[in-house]
Structure formats: C-alpha cells, structure tokens
Design brief:
Blueprint lengths: L2 E3 L1 H4 L2 H6 L8 H8 L3 E5 L4 E3 L7 E7 L1 E6 L8 E7 L3 E2 L4 H4 L12 E5 L3 E7 H7 L3 H31 L20 E3 L4 H11 L3 E6 L2 E7 H7 L16 E2 L4 E2 L4 H11 L3 E6 L2 E7 H7 L7 H7 L5 H17 L4 H29 L9 E5 L1 H4 L11 E5 L11 H26 L16 E3 H13 L3 H10 L3 E5 L1 H16 L2 H12 L20 E3 L1 H18 L7 H10 L5 H27 L7 E3 L5 H24 L3
Parallel strand pairs: 10-11, 14-15, 18-19
Antiparallel strand pairs: 1-2, 2-9, 3-8, 4-7, 4-9, 5-6, 5-8, 11-12, 12-13, 15-16, 17-18, 17-20, 21-22
Helix pairs in contact: 9-13, 11-13, 12-13, 13-15, 16-18, 19-20, 20-21, 20-23, 21-22, 22-23
C-alpha cells in the first residue's frame, strides 16, 4: 500500500534546497510550499501513475528508481520507455495542461509509472508549480528536461520508422484505420427509394452508400446489395431503401489498427466498414483499401483461400505462415497475432467444409438434408492455434422428430446419419490436404463417437456425467474447449441448451473434474528467478504443466456458473460480470495468459523455422531473464486461479 508521510519529518531539506525546482527559497518558504505537496513511499512494482488517468502535477523522485512504461491492454506486456533515477522529475507531459494548452484531438494516455525499487516521491501540484514558474531558473530547468525528452521521443520515432521500412511486409499492420479510410462519406436518408440511392451511387461513382436517419447510422447499401437483393423486391425501384439495405452494419473505430480491420473483415464476411469516432461516421474503409496498402500478397491470402482446391490446399498454410512470421517479427501483441491467424485458419477450415459438401454432391450423395453444426476443440477451439496441429473436431446434426407422426421421419433420420458419416470422412480428408494431421486419439467428426444427432449427443453427455471416470473427464475437458465454427445458428443454440440442461443435473460431475485437477497443479519453478538454475527442473512443458491446468480451471469455474462456451478470455470476462472474480484478478490472469502464450508462440515458431520437431517444452537456459521473470509471475497467478477454482468446490 502507498504510505503517506509527514513532509516535515520525511523530506531531506538539504537535498531539496540544492534541487533546481527549489533553489533560492528560504526554509520557511520551502516548508510552506511543501504543505501543498505530498510525500509518498512506494514498494517495488507498485504503480505511481496508472495509464489513462489524469495528472495534476509533476513528481520529483527523491529516492529510489522508477520506470515509465506504455500499457498496451490487459492481455499484453508493457514496454518500458524510460527509467528515472533519484533527483530527477517525471510526469512532464502534463506541463501542456498546466500551460493551458488543450488537446487538438481525442487520444488516450497509455503511459504509466511504477517503482523499480523502494522509492520516495514528492508530488508537486500545479498550484506549487505556478508559484515557482515565476523563477527563470525553474522555467529553464523544466524546459531543458522537456527538450531532452522530446529529443528522445523523436529518436525513438525515427528508429520505429526505420524498422517499419525494413519490415515492409507487416508495416501496414502497425497503421491505423484513419490512415487509409475514405472520407468524407457519401450518406443518404433512409426515407429515399432504391431508385434514389442507385442514381446517387452512379452519379458519385461509389460502390457503397451509408444510410442515415436523423444523423444516426442505420444501414449500408453496396453495389452487390442493389444487384442481388433487387430480385427479392420484384425489381421495384420505388420501394424504400430500407427494404434492401444491411441494417445496423458492423463499424470500426478510426483508431483501430490495420490488423483489427482485417480481422473484422474476416469474421463478419463483409467488404465495407463504416468508420466511427464518438458514434459519428467519419469515414469508410473497404477490403480493397487493405489490398492497396500491401505491396506483396499478405492480404491476398483471402483470395488464395477462396480459390484453393484439392491440388493446392496445402499452399494456403504456407501463405498463412508468411503472415504469422511478419507479425512475430514486428512484435505485434500475441493476442492480436492469435486473433488474426485464427481468423485465417477459420476461413481455411470453412472452405474445406464447403469443398467436402461439394465433393459429396459431385459423387451423387447430394446436399445435407438437415441443418448441422461443426465444432473445433483444443487450441483451435480456444482460438490460440498458430501452427497447424492435429485435427480436433465434432459434428452435430438436426433430426426429424418421429413423434410428430411423419411416416418418413425414421427413414429420413437414417439417411441423414448415412450422409453425415460420409461428410465427416470427407471433411477429415480435405483438412488433411490443407495440412491438418489426423488426430491420434481419433477425436474427429468421421468417428461415430464424435458425430451424431442432437438426441445422440444428449445421451453421450449424460453418459459422461453419470459415469465420471478419469477417462470420461479427460474427454470432457477436451470437449468443453469447443467453438462453433460452421453451420446452423439455431441448431447451435439448441445444442447449448442441451448442454446446459445436462450440467444442471450433474453437479457431482463438475466436482469430480475439480477433484482431478487438484492432483495436477500448475508447475512451480521457484522464485526468485536468480535461484532458478539451482533447481533440478531445467525445462518447462508449457502445454502439459501450465496451459492445460489453466484452461481446465477456467472451464470448470465457468461451467459451474452457467458459462458453457467462449474462449478463455471471453469466459474470464463473463466470470467478472457474474462477480465470481474481481476486475483486478481477471486482468492479472489475462496478463499471465498472454505472457505464457507469447513465450509459447516465439519458442514454437523458432523450432518450426529451424525444422526441429514440434513440442511445447521450453529450456530455461534459452530464455531471456525478463521472460523467465514473467513466467515465474505468470505461473504464480495461474496457481492462484487454480486455487480459486478448487475453493469454489470446497477443495
């Protein structure tokens, strides 16, 4: 905790008299000024300034050492940009506010300050600074300090620009949407007809138009909409534009990064995104804009995926790996790397399923008779797959209710079962062509155990939960990492309802899952890190000794509170919403998760590039000291999470 001190007892007056900020004042004047200041002592790693918080003065570091860092978000490691030593000042960025200079644009201050060691700080408010500002020596001192900092900033920017030039292939990933959006945007009121909108688009030579209602965004219309949806209106051009527009379209912030825009285009399957700032339309970005930003083929991978077939499916993997390599080289945060790469892999997987359905149709087996859903499990299900691994998936299909009296129901259900047995095998075949190895444990939708109608899945889940053997729990742990990737949304919702019903009747099952996890704690490598090499343990298997336990703890805890799907990050946020854990603890967990995944990605990608056998074992002697420190801290947090989960079950 921060400890407040009485300035008259804690301040070294002799040192302050010599400091440029207070040189020339009398003892009485100094004591008077210090009455408006605040002395605080901070322990190691304690935050002095939090990011995104207002500042109302500067700080003189009287004793110790602090570091200034840039915060990228709760999931990512901060970057240290400056170290401040005793008798120096920090917080100079607020001088502009002190001088009355307002911001010319909206921005967020992501800069924070924390103690590197036990430190004593003197917080000097604007009121005291205003009194001392009259002294020319004080103004000169602060201006010199600011000039040095400004020089450092420009030096860093120049270095960043040079690196961006060197890494040209991923330069666009560091740009913001505002850098390549189109503006101003063509808008039209929603009371207009299709004819009005079509004429406006032709006259202005644009491929899309934003639809507004009293200044509010209500929709978007593209050339494709005009052509494809006009058929539904019977070709009536005098109908309102609302009859064919896309209602409540996806939007993106002007401050979003290139790779965030790319991810949104991929996940939402759109080609136009309205750009917003403070809920106002300020621009438009299209998929073509992203294509134009690239000199080579990173973004064209979308077309590569869509155009791939049996003969060149394997080429897509290499194209995705090129993107991965660029992102890693440029130091893009690991959560954004995984998001971008997962979206590309999802696109590939969906294309494989489409190819499988087309293949069966060409063979004379027709199209699916009933709706179905296809799910990924494991790292793909958790959205943390970056290198293609073994296949891990299952399939659920709708069945016709034989109780409704349809004499054909039984025959149609048998036909559906027959069709999906073929489809399961065909999907596995195309995924294998794309570079996904077959699962050694046979957890794939071509296996009848991992395929079935909704009622069969209900029976399957019930059997797992009634007979909670260690083997069934192991299978369930993998199952509950599922993620819906392809298929019918209403059936997916029905499937979730089935799972929730079964869990509500099987509390002992979750207890058994937790009980088994107690026997498999998160690995402990010891602390402080300097003593690490004194331990016999020289390696750490990040999957088997850390991530499995972490994921199981999150899954079990979320299942207990009715959260039955979602990625680890989504589940953690939902647990906060349900007040199962605090925001602070959730942030710590997400930071720990990101730290482990960063080391995992860098280590695995390095092995892949060196053509070494893939594994998740990290030798300590290959890690940088900072990475070791981060891992020790992350494992401690993950053990706390595991302990939190066990307490929930009285273990």
């Amino acid at each position: 905790m921060n400890q407040h001190a009485n300035p008259n007892k804690s301040v070294n007056y002799e040192a302050l008299f010599k400091h440029p900020l207070f040189q020339g004042v009398s003892l009485e004047q100094l004591r008077l000024l210090l009455q408006y200041c605040e002395v605080r002592m901070y322990t190691r790693a304690e935050k002095i300034f939090h990011a995104k918080t207002p500042r109302d003065g500067i700080v003189l570091l009287m004793q110790g050492m602090v570091e200034v860092y840039v915060e990228h978000g709760t999931n990512e490691k901060e970057d240290v940009i400056e170290v401040v030593h005793a008798n120096d000042v920090f917080g100079l960025s607020c001088i502009a506010d002190f001088l009355g200079e307002s911001h010319h644009h909206h921005s967020y201050n992501n800069v924070g300050v924390r103690a590197v060691e036990e430190s004593t700080c003197l917080k000097i408010p604007f009121s005291v600074l205003e009194i001392r500002w009259a002294e020319e020596s004080v103004r000169d001192y602060l201006m010199r300090k600011m000039a040095v900092r400004l020089k450092d900033v420009y030096g860093s920017l120049a270095e960043f620009a040079q690196l961006a030039k060197q890494w040209g292939e991923s330069e666009t990933f560091t740009r913001r949407v505002m850098d390549f959006m189109s503006h101003p945007v063509l808008t039209i009121e929603q009371q207009k007809t299709i004819r009005d909108v079509a004429k406006t688009m032709v006259d202005n030579r644009v491929s899309s138009v934003i639809i507004m209602d009293d200044g509010e965004l209500t929709g978007i219309v593209t050339e494709k909409d005009l052509v494809s949806r006009m058929i539904a209106t019977g070709g009536n051009l005098d109908k309102p534009i609302t009859s064919i527009m896309t209602h409540k379209p996806c939007t993106i912030s002007k401050y979003a990064y290139y790779y965030e825009a790319l991810s949104l285009f991929l996940t939402e399957n759109v080609k136009h995104l309205p750009v917003v700032e403070n809920n106002k339309i300020v621009g438009l970005v299209t998929l073509s804009d992203l294509f134009r930003r690239k000199n080579r083929g990173t973004v064209k991978i979308l077309q590569t995926i869509e155009d791939s077939n049996e003969t060149n499916l394997l080429d897509v993997k290499d194209a995705i790996y090129d993107v991965l390599n660029s992102l890693i080289n440029d130091g893009i945060p690991v959560t954004h790397i995984l998001e971008t790469i997962t979206n590309l892999f999802d696109r590939l997987v969906k294309h494989c399923i489409d190819l499988a359905i087309e293949s069966l149709d060409k063979q004379g087996h027709g199209k699916p008779l009933v709706p179905f859903c296809w799910f990924q499990m494991g790292s793909g299900g958790r959205r943390e797959q970056f290198i293609l691994t073994d296949q891990d998936h299952f399939l659920v299909y709708q069945e016709i209710d034989e109780m409704q009296g349809d004499p054909q129901a039984e025959a149609q259900n048998e036909q559906a079962e027959w069709y999906f047995s073929f489809l399961g095998e065909e999907i596995v075949k195309f995924l294998e062509m794309a570079g996904y190895h077959r699962c050694k444990g046979d957890m794939m939708s071509n296996n009848p155990i991992w395929r079935g109608s909704l009622s069969k899945w209900e029976e399957r889940l019930r059997s797992w939960m009634l007979r909670s053997t260690n083997e069934k729990i192991m299978v369930a742990n993998n199952f509950f990492s599922y993620r819906f990737v392809y298929g019918d949304q209403p059936l997916y919702e029905e499937f979730l309802h089935t799972i929730k019903q079964q869990l509500s009747r099987s509390s002992i099952f979750l207890y058994r899952m937790a009980e088994l996890e107690k026997l498999n704690p998160v690995s402990q490598v010891g602390a402080p890190i300097r003593s690490l090499f004194g331990f016999e343990k020289k390696n750490l298997d990040l999957k088997k000794e850390v991530l499995f336990q972490f994921h199981h703890a999150i899954q079990i805890l979320s299942l207990k509170y009715g959260i039955i799907d979602g990625t680890p990050t989504q589940r953690i946020r939902q647990l906060v919403d349900k007040q199962v854990m605090t925001n602070e603890f959730a942030d710590d967990i997400l930071t720990a998760y990101a730290s482990v995944m960063r080391v995992r990605v860098e280590h695995a990608w390095g092995r892949f590039r060196r053509n070494e056998e893939s594994n998740s074992v990290v030798p300590f002697n290959q890690l940088k000291n900072r990475d070791k420190e981060e891992l020790v801290s992350a494992l401690k947090t993950m053990r706390s999470l595991q302990g939190h989960m066990l307490i929930e079950f009285g273990l």
